[in-house]
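dumping these here so i dont lose them again. two proteins, back to back, each one seq then structure tokens. dont judge the mess
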Amino acid sequence: MRILFVHDQFGFHGGAESNIYQTATALKSRGHTVGILHGRATGQGDVAWREVFAHRFPLAGKDDSITTEDAAQRFQPDVIHVHKTADLEVLEALVELKVPLVRMVHDHDLYCMRSYKYHYSSRAICTRAASPYCIFPCGASIARNRDGGFPLKWVSYRAKKREIRLNRRFDRMLVFSHYMKEELLRNGFSAERIEVHTPLHADRAEPPPSTFDSRNLILSVGQIIRGKGVDVLLDALATVKTRFECAVLGDGSHRP
């Protein structure tokens, strides 16, 4: 089978990129041919990624629909495996290809203009679908610009709704939890097209047994930024009555 991955980055950066690399490596080891349509290079692990993805189709940020169509023509995929992209030109070109489309939903970016599904000031969990509420009173149209230059940027509600509509046309949506499935259902996705795949180590037929002991060591691994949940973990641990240790591995703007 020929599988074309689609992602907004090339190289290691976070959990999504690790998932892509491990999935592509496993599929290639089983005799499948993998290619990737990708955005900017992260500069991390390029050599390893090039070894896995012999077929690479970089997006230049303009004429992306033409690049997408050209990649499909040259690679001739049997299935297209989309990870993270909000490029409407790419998405529109993909759904018109009439090739089976699979989307792995790694986070809330697809249906939340803020990307982290809780209110900025109160930190209360948001349980709404994408709607005009995102504009007012949520104010999600104004976001921090992490790409340099002016500190704020405009997030288009109309573009977000269009992105959701395009993704609804995918043949399968893959999520890691039932919570994520409920978020997709809330935003109008078909239940028959959503599959929950809880990530487990590929070499284990059974989940590893619990190894809790009197030390009760808890390990938190990930970026320490808004939305990753380290603040929720600390609030939860404050209520624990028994003895425990917690090690937090990671860095980010919320570390202080």
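---- next one ----
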Amino acid sequence: MVNPFGATSTTDDVLSGVNLQGKRILVTGVSAGLGVETARSLAAHGAHVVGTARDLNKGELATAEIRSGAANGGSFELVALDLANLESVRICAEKLLAKGVPFDVVIANAGVMATPFGHTADGFETQFGTNHLGHFLFVNKIAPLMRAGGRLINLSSAGHRYAAVDLDDPNFERTPYDPLVAYGRSKTANILFAVAFDRRHRERGIRAAAVHPGSIETELVRHLDPSHVQKTIDRINLQLAAEGRGSFQWKTIPQGAATSVWAGVVAPADEIGGRYCENCQVGKLVPDDATINEGVRGYALDPNTAEKLWEKSEELVGESF
């Protein structure tokens, strides 16, 4: 069957005719942007959505429309989770485990991008610690709640092309800090985490995938220099012109959240398991030195690196899974 969805598909397109009654879905980072739209669209189609936010007051304001727009038996609740603080991660996970209510899908959506050099509460470089280690610990802690046939969807980015992971110096203790390199490392880690999680849980029918939402103007880009953004767009446009394609277009937030929703509840599990998805399709493998933004670099899907990252992540968070 031909996949009818693509770069301009929205969450409502992807979920047209889909009834999610009885499904429980967890979405991290629902205080802005993609997380809010992801949660909204799922609740509007009948799912019970548990959203997480670091700032509950901000989260409550951002998700008011989700509660009012829930339909077909859908509902929404908000819980506190600060991925940059492993104590907060453990507290949130333990509360969910104590409730013992299962999840069909976990969408690890929250993240930061190109932040100034800094550290999480536990001393990890901000982007690697928040985007990867926080989710690594949280998802593994609540994995017993995931139903057979469930899915984990990790939000990655085309930004993974900026850098592979550096397991010898994850906190830039010996490497000059570059915000985009750090972002690239963390987004590559998101993909590798999906690869390793998929391998460990597929026998239970649980599959994991990473997704690139596309280029969207959300709060995530607030640390980027506008001149750098424009230079990147100019470079992309030159390449698109050389290929005879149209110019770069920002995605809307509903278009950006569509791939998360597609991979989470619509796409065939075996099609997306252990893969990288973009534009509501499985992304193609491209050379590591490719200049194009589309596709996934081989180092981000390498199973050996995925295992080494898993072991390093266990060491850093102090727990084995």
